[in-house]
Structure formats: structure tokens, C-alpha cells
Amino acid sequence: MSGIRVLVGTRKGAFILTSDAKRERWNISGPHFAGWEIYHMKGSPVDPNRLYASQSSGWFGQIIQRSDDGGNTWHQPGTPPGEPTTTPEGMPKGESNKFVYDTSVETGKPLTTHQWYDGTPHPWEFKRVWHLEPSLTDSDTVYAGVEDAALFRSTDGGKSWQEVSGLRGHGTGSKWQPGAGGMCLHTILLDPSNPARIFVAISAAGAFRTGDGGKTWQPINRGLHSQYIPDPTAEVGHCVHRIAMHRSRPGVLFMQKHWDVMRSDDAGESWREVSGNLPTDFGFVIDVHAHEPETIYVVPIKSDAEHFPPDGKLRVYRSRSGGTEWEPLTKGLPQSDCYVNVLRDAMAVDSLDKCGVYFGTTGGQVYASADAGDSWAPIVRDLPAVVSVEVQMLP
Amino acid sequence: MIRVTLPAHLRKLAQVDGEVKLNVEHPVTQRSVLDALEIAYPMLRGTIRDHVTQRRRAFVRFFACQQDLSHELPDAPLPDAVATGAEPFMIIGAIAGG
Q1: Which of A36, A94, A98 has its CB closest to that of B9?
Q2: What are the residue boundaries of the structural domains of chain B, listed by start?
Q3: pLDDT tens digits, residue range A253-291?
Q4: What is the ipTM of this complex?
Q5: A98 at the B interface (CB within 8 A)?
Q6: B39 touches chain A (CB under 8 A)
């Protein structure tokens, strides 16, 4: 193993941090795409040099960027630098930023509205890509979770995108509503043991699962309890913030909901609360130790009204028992006057021994622990607000 | 030649410095200028107007000859000074906040 690459998306550009396996000294590359919001970057498990990035702007919309050399150079898929961008007939080679909802009768089961904040019907409008999830087996296949909530898939390296429309069309879509950050599909978990099984999560609709590669979907929200919807145990409407799994046990899922930390041992069929002794069970991130499937991490946030750590103390909480019993991890983290947030895609782990844990804050710090959370240090500390953090192991 | 100015973010995407110059057949309209721009720089498709509806994105404005042309019809002729290349067709990111 030659090193670690940390992919950091921020409100004003992308940064790539690299280190050898000691994880002590970090080189920082960036900003890439300066001035643009980078919601997410992630590398292909098949080819670590293949990176995908979601570049977004309220003015100019969505751009998809791809690197085939580990982030040294980037291009919009279909328009590689130095090559003609159009076919001999004058047509664009790629339409990497074209995300069009499927409304066809055959596959899309036309869906025209979801719920707006006030409960009235609102048309589906594409805004941005929140999360990119490269396939576990093919570097040209990648999934995109978008706002307004839907799942898209590209099988040509991001040149073109098609909606996996069975998700929006399965029957509950008209009841989905936006969370405070928008109606986003932010979590995509691919089952390493079953290529046909995918889990996704939407704020504020809930969690969903397919067992046939995306043709059909079902809500998997039994056991969730949300006070902010008319029926707290409704089939959909839950503001799920993040789901995590350990690749060795894809039937065990951990969830950070708006409030409540939850666990499922049956692939989402049912959930039970494992918030236990957390100081607050509101938060955004949740992740699993690379080698210990029962060791999980969260960063408690005071409340949905006050998006910062309780008491001004930035604490990661670790459970070694799959939830319920939690210990605060504070060594190296600010324990006074800290009022940053840690957003839902901003935690990741590496698979070195000991497991490395990384998270980014809205204050621009990326903290890393090279000892599974026992101690922490900032590996960069003055970036724009961090939106996402991913980690790659380099061969 | 039609002269088009782009905002900084789009210049970077298109990998151009300064103004863009385009051959556009007459009549010169917003639509014909944007069509020519997107053929020359396909990476800009979807950034100025919607891929499907072809409507101007909400936070993009079109200025020329000290006029705001954002709300003109896409097929309305642009001012002669734009058509002759005397003045640029300016694509602007709307000032929506500080």
C-alpha cells in the first residue's frame, strides 16, 4: 500500500489530501474547481485513479467532473481536454450534466409532484447531485443521488445519465417532502455480496431498498418514529440523515436520523433505536469501523435548531457494541467554544491497521484519527466549509 | 463575428480567456447565439439555459448595449451593434446577494 488519499468537497472548491501509510504528513492539492460547491467526490473501488466529482452552482447548475489520473487533471466526461468536443456531425460527445427525470409511461410511471414544505403538491425539479457512488465492479458505472430526490445511473463513465425511475415510481413519491437542506437523495449503499441490492436514503422521505438492481423498490422505515410528521410512524416522511454499513455484514445497517440513532439487523425490514447514552441523538454523520462491524461513530449535534456540538465541545462518540453504549472521543478535538457542524457526507474511514477515521467541519477543518478515534489531529484546518469527505487506499 | 462575454466560472469551464467570438447566421437572436456557443463549447450546455426547456437559468442575465435583454423572447433579433460585432452579448451571473 503506497498511501492514503482524502477527497474533500467544500462550499468553494475541492481539495485532495495525500499521505503515506503513516498518516502523519499530508500534502494538500487544491482548490480544484475554485469557487464552485463540491458536494461530493468519490473514487472507483475498481480503479483508484478514476474519480468522480459533483460540481454545483446556484447560478450555472450542475457539472460532473471526472479524473482518470487520481485528481491531477479533470474533465467533463465526454469532453476530454485536447480532443474534439463534438462528433463530426457537430453533436456534443457527452451530456454529463443532463439529468432528466424519466416520465415515460413504459418505465417512469409519470410522477409530476412531491410535497412542498407546506404539504402542497410541487413539481419535481432537478437542482444538483448530492452524492456519487461508483460501482464496486465497473469503473464506468456510477450512481448519482440528486435533489429533487431521485437516483440516476451512468454506465459510460459519467457521459450520460439515466434515471433509475422505479424508485420515484414505486408509489410513495407523492408523499415525499424536502428536509431543511432540500429534498435530496444523499446515501447510496451498494451491497458487496449482492449486486442487485441497493439501499438509498432521502431527506425527508426515508430509506428504500431494491433487490433487483433498481427495477422495484420498497420503503424500509418500520420502527422509525418522527414527531414532525402527522403520523410519527408513517411508511415514508422520515428525515434520514445518513445510513452506513460494514461491507462484511450488508444486512446490518446503522442510521443517523434527524433525531435518533437507529440500527437494523434485517436489511432495513425493522429498526430499533440505539441512541443510548449519547448527549443528544441529533446529528448528520454515521460510519462503521473498517475492521470491527460493531464499532460505529457519530458526531452528536445539539439540535435541529442549533447545528453545533453541545456545550461547544466537538466530540466524536464511539460505540463498540453496535450502539446504545457510547464513549466520547475528545483527545485532540476542541473542547471549548467550538460551534461547527459536521455534515452528512463528511465522515469516512480507511482500512489500515489501525483503522483511520476522518471528518470535516463547516469551519474548514478536516480531523483525522490514525488510531480508530482514540486521538485526533487536524490534517488541514482552514478550508472553506467542508461538505464531504471520502478516503481512498492507494495500492 | 459575434462577440460574447462569459462570467468567470463559465470561462474556466470552457477553457477560454476573454471574449468568445462566434460565427452566427442572421438573424442574430439569443437562441442563435446560444446555439452557436453551445456547439463551440458543449461543456456549457445546461449552464446558461435548461437542457430540456431551453429556458434561461433563473440566475443568469443577458445584457447588451446598456440594455437588459434577459426577458426578451429567444427569437427576437438582438441589437444591430451585437449582430455586427460592435458590441458584445454579455452573459452575466445575476447579483443575488453579496
Answers
A1: A36
A2: 2-93
A3: 999 999 999 999 999 999 999 999 999 999 999 999 999
A4: 0.86
A5: yes
A6: yes
